[in-house]
Design goal:
By secondary structure, this protein is an alpha/beta fold. About 30% of the residues lie in helices and about 25% in strands.
């Protein structure tokens, strides 16, 4: 048994994680290459390594010819006399295996064989590393900071080194050699110099994997992390939901006395973490995402992915956050474009009041009617002719009536009382909250209560004209 070869193969198999069969094949190919270098060709050379005894043999398969004079190529032919020494039953035309002593190889051939073996080992090592870390993509591993490479950092991951690019480093985080850190494996690439492993400290999924490590309920799927919004080194918001009604998602993630979330905060070097409850209702989800601010109202449009939010005046700054951070993270967490206003600002801003959406519904309903009366929230009366509901007072036309939010009146000699207490009068009446000018035989109602009279009464502003009968009843005048 070749004990030296056995020890070398077993050591490489353990250290480099390369199978022994691959190493056997590499040695066989190396010996064939050495023979080719030594003899000039190796088409008829066969190398075999016994997998049990670790002994190897290198043979040249030669064709038997009758006499030595007929041997034209000593590497491919052998005389019958010489063949009989190796195989007694050999005959002309037979193939005889002639052993080659590798010790006869020159220095150059030996060096070539060595290089072939080393090259194969490197290739297999790179392939093993690529396969190992390809399976670890999108996961976190613990590494040790090695050195700075320009603005990048080399991190030893165990069997390979990862590259932490400048853009994947947390702003303000200073890593020094021998520091132990957890990194997220972004990608594993194949290059001419071997696999290139790119790692990150800023990726949002780094937080996700840390929670999976610290919180058993997250790892088991009882609690699900629905979305993450992160500004590395400063603050992170995560939305969670529980698939078990008996498990509080926030309480499970925080842990007893906050120990679970504190371990994650320590790993992220003090980065703040907000945990909110995910809700399938966009309004509720946006309200939760804007915590710690309280929300008065949310108007969300799921199709356009926009939302208008109203908060108390004293919490507007809290809802927006420092340099807009809270609102920005909430927008990323929910996927909505969020516009935030205080209650005072919302009074004069379209889309921030319930009335804005109610009015739109009413106008859509009114457009469905043509040539007949559509009832308003205020009690409008039917009139002969055509009626179109309006909010502002429109001018009357002959045989046509336009209703007001205040009490409206019937045309054609009929009167319906206004909010101000006006009495019926004969003739035609056009109702207005303020006194309108009389038309022929008409009556314009005033806010003060007046008695019925067959005489005409006209209000001309500050000047008033009173009939004789009215003057007798009211000697004091106006």
């Amino acid at each position: 048994m070749n004990t030296e070869l056995k020890e070398a193969i077993l050591a490489l198999e353990k250290e480099k994680k390369i199978s022994s069969e691959t190493l056997f094949s590499a040695i066989e190919n190396a010996l064939i290459t050495a023979c080719k270098s030594h003899f000039g060709k190796a088409e008829n050379i066969k190398v075999n390594i016994d997998r049990d005894s670790f002994t190897y043999s290198c043979c040249a398969e030669k064709t038997v010819v009758e006499t030595p004079e007929e041997v034209e190529d000593s590497l491919e032919q052998i005389s019958l006399e010489d063949a009989a020494k190796i195989q007694k039953t050999a005959q002309v035309g037979d193939i005889v295996s002639v052993e080659i002593n590798s010790r006869d190889f020159g220095r150059i051939a030996t060096q070539i064989a060595k290089n072939v073996i080393l090259q194969k080992i490197r290739e297999e090592e790179r392939s093993a590393i690529f396969d190992e870390y390809s399976q670890k993509q999108r996961t976190i591993v613990t590494g040790i900071v090695q050195r700075n490479i320009g603005r990048n950092i080399s991190v030893n991951l165990g069997s390979a080194d990862g590259i932490l690019n400048e853009k994947e480093q947390v702003p303000g985080e200073h890593l020094h050699p021998t520091d132990r850190v957890k990194v997220f494996i972004l990608e594993v690439r194949t290059t001419n110099r071997g696999p290139r492993i790119l790692v990150s400290r800023t990726h949002p999924d780094l937080v996700r994997r840390l929670f999976e490590q610290e919180v058993a309920e997250v790892k088991d799927g009882v609690i699900e992390i629905m979305s993450i919004a992160r500004e590395p080194g400063s603050r992170t918001k995560i939305a969670v939901r529980s698939n078990d009604p008996n498990v509080d998602p926030i309480g499970a993630c925080v842990g007893s006395n906050g120990n679970r979330v504190n371990n994650i905060v320590d790993e992220l070097r003090g980065e703040k973490i907000d945990i909110v409850v995910w809700d399938e209702n966009p309004g509720n989800f946006i309200q939760n995402a804007l915590s710690p601010a309280n929300v008065v109202a949310v108007f969300a449009d799921p199709e356009e992915k926009v939302a208008k939010v109203v908060v108390p005046d004293f919490q507007l700054s809290l809802a927006i956050g420092k340099e807009g951070q809270n609102a920005r993270l909430a927008a990323r967490l929910t996927g909505y474009k969020i516009d935030i206003k205080s209650e005072t600002q919302a009074k004069d801003a379209y889309g921030f009041r319930y009335e804005d959406y109610l009015d739109e519904d009413e106008e859509e309903d009114e457009e469905e009617y043509s040539g007949e009366y559509a009832g308003e929230e205020s009690g409008d009366e039917n009139a002969e002719g055509e009626f179109t509901g309006e909010k502002s007072g429109d001018e009357n036309a002959e045989g046509e009536f336009t209703g007001e939010e205040s009490g409206d009146e019937n045309a054609e000699g009929e009167f319906t009382g206004e909010e101000s207490g006006d009495e019926n009068a004969e003739g035609e009446f056009t109702g207005e909250e303020s006194g309108d000018e009389n038309a022929e035989g008409g009556y314009a109602g005033e806010a003060p209560v007046s008695d019925n009279s067959e005489d005409e009464y006209a209000d001309g502003g500050s000047d008033q004209v009173i009939s004789e009968e009215k003057a007798d009843n009211d000697p004091a005048g106006v």
